[in-house]
Amino acid sequence: MSKEKTAFECRFYRLGQYGRPHGEKPDKKAVSSLVEAGANGANSAAEASENADVVISMLPSNQHVLDCYFGEKGVLSSVKKDVLLVDSSTIDPSISEQVSTAAKKIGARFVDAPVSGGVNAASAATLTLMVGGSKTDFEDAERVLVAVGSRVIHCGKVGAGQATKLCNNMLLGISMIGTAEAFILGERLGLDPKILASVINTSSGRCWSSELYNPVPGVLDNAPSTNGYQGGFGTALMTKDLGLAQAAASRTETPSPLGSIAYQIYRTAMGHGHSKLDFSVVYQFLKGKQ
């Protein structure tokens, strides 16, 4: 589906970098910067959502989503009938199902639409969006989501987008650790990491973590690793997603030994002060530079 130029009135409410508990004031600096760019500010999720045709949320955790939708000044307290709710958080699929059920009771519609691609893809509007919901709701959401993503994929019923994202991020966490281990070994064997990367990225070891998001500083100019692991996808968020994947694996009796190990490694990395750094900092953690 080609991207069409569409005019939107955008009302923005920011919960903060790591979310804010229900009742706290929005991040005024973040709101003001978007107001300067042409959006309209709001003092609560309810105010941002009233009279909207489409509401999009993207939050760090299960509880933030519950607060955003069910809180005293939450989305569901103000939206009009037939509004389309799009949640792009990465959360447990059961939370998406819970919000969807509540939305239906007031005549609203809901899809879950987590994203993948990282900061660079977000800046270039080439994210991949994994959508769970009815076919009709997906098609309506797609018309909006193509503004930020080059691939908008219907994964199935509500919660299927979240399930897809958890599987993707579990693999991403595992592959980043594997990439870090390989480059640490290469360094200690005397290899130039740029030469090693050029070989891996044209050979059977090729993966996203090595080719587009290399954890070794200086290999890629635009990777967080070259910028002191600032920006990107935080270690705390990767740890949260790996935890959600492990909970789902336990619930479905699915063996996940590598996912479990990855989760423990990232939890330990957080304990050594890396929670706010990009998750590729696991390279430094495994090197022993803690």
Gist of the model:
Helices cover about 45% and strands about 10% of the residues. The chain has twelve helices and eight strands.
Give structural notes:
- Residues 1-8 and 14-24 have low confidence and may be disordered.
- It is globular and about 65 Å long.
- It has twelve helices and eight strands.
- The strands form three sheets. It has a three-stranded parallel sheet, with helices on both faces. A three-stranded mixed sheet has the order 6-7-8. The chain has a two-stranded parallel ribbon with strand order 1-2.
- By secondary structure, it is mainly α.
- Helix 7 (160-188) packs across helix 10.
- It has helices at residues 28-36, 45-49, 62-70, 93-105, 118-123, 135-145, 160-188, 193-200, 208-211, 235-251, 257-274, 282-287; strands at residues 11-12, 40-41, 54-57, 84-87, 109-112, 115-116, 127-132, 149-156.
- The protein has two domains: 11-156, NAD(P)-binding Rossmann-like Domain (Rossmann fold); 163-287, N-(1-d-carboxylethyl)-l-norvaline Dehydrogenase, domain 2, CATH 1.10.1040.
User: How many strand elements?
Assistant: 8
By DSSP (H or I, 4+ residues per run), the number of helices equals 12
- Biggest sheet, spatial arrangement of strands: 3-4-5
Radius of gyration: 20 Å
Question: Keyphrases for this structure?
Answer:
mainly alpha; Rossmann fold; three-stranded parallel sheet; three-stranded mixed sheet; disordered N terminus
